[in-house]
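WP5 quarterly update. Target: Crp/Fnr family transcriptional regulator. Source organism: Paracoccus spongiarum. Length: 243 aa.
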Amino acid sequence: MAITDYFIRYLQRRDRLSDKDLARLRALRTEQVAYAPGEVIVPVERHAQRSCMMLRGLSARSHQLVGRPEERVITALHVPGDFVDLHGFVLAGLEHSVIAIGPAEVEFVSHDQLTAITEDLPHLTRLLWMATLIDAAVHRQWLVAAASLRSSAHLAHLLCEIYARLHAVGAASDHRFALPLLQRELADILGYSPIHVNRAVRDLRDRGLIRWSGADVTILDWKGLATLARFDPTYLDMEQARR
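Structure tokens (predicted):
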């Protein structure tokens, strides 16, 4: 499956695409690149010339702490269909890098092609803008979850969100999905120690809410997991509406 198919599903979940919109998306010239776990997909840079969409696997937005280069904070996870660094199209530079979480594959789109879209197709331009706004909404919700949920509920919220995003583009079903995160990476995301993350995973298992083996996660009780997490997918803006 081409990345544009996942991105098309991402957009069509939220709005109808015209034949002209679809034709332009399917005509995008892209460069596919595969990455090993931990490799840098997008570096910290000024005046980027391209942006990337996730094709397979996961990626993360990684921030190095000033004066502590051995430490990092992960502020976003990206799944297939996400236009990972679209904001780099309009900003002068990125203050963070994007790294592969597990094996990952992306497709790069040149900013020249994005410029042409914004000049020719106003509806598709609004949808690209929408994608960056949803990305910002997810970040805000992460802050809310971190401030209001304890460890098990916080982890439950992350699992609900990732499954909902994957399911929306057809990359997961039957409450099963792949999440190739190490406990250290989960700790970087949730802001806990690996020991606390281990306890949270064990707690969700003991409650009968999930089964987690290696990278494979199965949500055994969606209602129970969502209730614990106080998960409301409204912030993912998956209602179809004319924009």
